[in-house]
Flagellar P-ring protein
Amino acid sequence: MSLVQHITILYRATVLLGTLLVSFAVQVSDASAQSRIKDIANFEGIRDNLLVGYGLVVGLNGTGDDIDDAVFTRESLIGVLQRLGVNARDNDLDTDNVAAVMITANLPPFARQGTRIDMTVSAIGTAESLQGGTLLVTPLMGADGEVYAVGQGPIAINGFSAGGNAETITRGVPTVGRISNGAIVEREIDFDLKELQSVKIALKNPDLTTARRIAQAINTQLGGNSAISTDPSTVQLDVPERYRGNTVAMLTDIEQLPVRVDTPAKVVIDEKSGVIVIGNDVRISTVAIAQGNLTVRITETPQVSQPNAFSNTGTTEVVDRTEIEIDDDSDKRLALLPSGVTLQEVVNGLNALGVGPRDMIAILQSIKAAGALQADIELL
């Protein structure tokens, strides 16, 4: 085999390897940019419901509410004792081992009677800590006023408070605690998912392109045109004939489908903390940027002037000495950001100017005002 043939074979192998590497890189990029439908959207009827209740925590070691100041705690304690057959209305209650609290919980979708759920307990009075306390039986109600769960149990807190006459140390929030599996579901929310004729899929981040891609992915999986995007946040899915009476199986088949999420170009700025988040699709038109601040520093260094030794006419005087420094950032240069630069190039260009987050916020706002920033700026 001649040298030319060897070179030709080597060239073709190199081209083929390069093609394979590019193809592999594109596939990896596409796969990494895709998300499952279950991660970017919610299905109709599969949702939590919020519960709330009011109760009393007992067993506190002198860190509860002041009965004289917290009237609601006093009246609640008297009511509980009277229901238990104890007449405390005519007695002078003086205890600091009781605290009034609000209880919040999430009722999971399709929670059945007897299922246990977690609760969060928060003091609403003058209690200093809920450590060591026990929540008395408390009904938890939904937005419709019906009782859906009942909670009771010892409270676990993540913080503590200790101190004396001169100093107090507090870590975490000792007036908020949690009771794991402390509430029992007593009422179920009726929703017949398997008999639905159509299902609405709600996007967590509404977007026209993403909604259309979800509909296309579902139609490819199920066949036909059963899914259609009705608006940026909703995909309407008619249950195909083969899934009638078994909607759960259909949702299981489509929730794992990968979809490439499209996001708008956006720059999010938190003025309070100086945090800047720049989206991947942010682009900047050709623009020149210069950044600099004028700093004037004045330092006073007074000196003492004394007369010569054994002088009868001289006096000791304080002589002012002022030093002025001016920094006009003359070492900063004009930086050019070319048109269509990527996110990485934007960051590199701004870092090259030697600016901090605060100055970077002003620069981004100025670029937007100049019409060169092809993205929306959202201030938190």
User: Anything to note?
Assistant: Residues 19-32 have pLDDT under 50 and may be disordered. The helical segments are 3-32, 37-40, 71-83, 208-222, 247-254, 343-352, 357-369. Residues 3-32 form the longest helix (30 residues).
